[in-house]
Amino acid sequence: MKFFLDTGSLKEIESLVPLGIIDGVTTNPSLMAKEGGDARAITKKICQVVKGPVSAEVIATDYAGMVAEGRELAKIDEHIVVKVPFTRDGVRATHTLAGEGIRVNVTLIFSATQALIAAKVGASYVSPFVGRLDDIASDGMGLIEQIVEIFDAYRFKTEILVASVRSPMHIVEAARMGAHVCTCPASVIEQCFKHPLTDIGLAKFLQDWEKSQAAKV
Ligand code: E4P
Questions:
Q1: Which of 97, 174, 176, 212 makes the best surface tag, with the fewest CB within 10 Å?
Q2: What is the pLDDT of residue 99?
Q3: Alpha carbon of 68 to ligand 1 centroid (Å)
Q4: What are phi and psi for residue 82, nearest 5 degrees?
Q5: Does the CB atom of residue 132 touch ligand 1 within 6 A?
Q6: Any catalytic annotation for residue 83?
Q7: Could you give the residue ranges of the DSSP H alpha helices within 84-195?
Q8: Nearest-angstrom CA–CA distance, 122 and 108
Q9: Phi then psi for 73, rounded to 5 degrees?
């Protein structure tokens, strides 16, 4: 399973990319707004650092506006994936952009039918928001299970990008279900590096080694 970072922060991206576990980045208007500055320039820099798929979202909500903006975003860098919300206009824009060879990530997916429709029009990725479903007492990961089953049945090439991830358990479940990508905030990736038994084990190894060295003198 690929790990994407769900952020617009270059600082977070630059700190995690050297580990070799980050395959791409997803941004959205809320994340980019937090960064301030020139969104286009930041997006270009993100592409240069991550050297993998970088989702950049359109702001327009009408078909013609989404297509025009999508074409412009795609010119920023070869790694750009145009992110389009799941609406009637968004689906039509996905159909057009995908037909031109532009990769599209259909976002704000909250049902299996939305995922199926996005896949039918040639989306490269669908982004089901598991955390936001959990927030309203719905089963976020249950939706991933349904989409995996449907995409497998019809051999869609569209990748399932698990979004709105809130904890490492979402990562574990996504991987067990065979989702293609999990996009995570940096804080969730950091949580995966914490295990008390690893810390205790390492401290003991080093302590034993130091004791043996001290005994030699
Ligand atoms: C996905 O691409 C979105 O940017 C993101 O995962 C939304 O997450 P949130 O529900 O934590 O805002």
A1: 212
A2: 98
A3: 24
A4: -80, 125
A5: yes
A6: yes
A7: 88-99, 112-120, 130-135, 140-154, 168-177, 186-191
A8: 16
A9: -60, -40
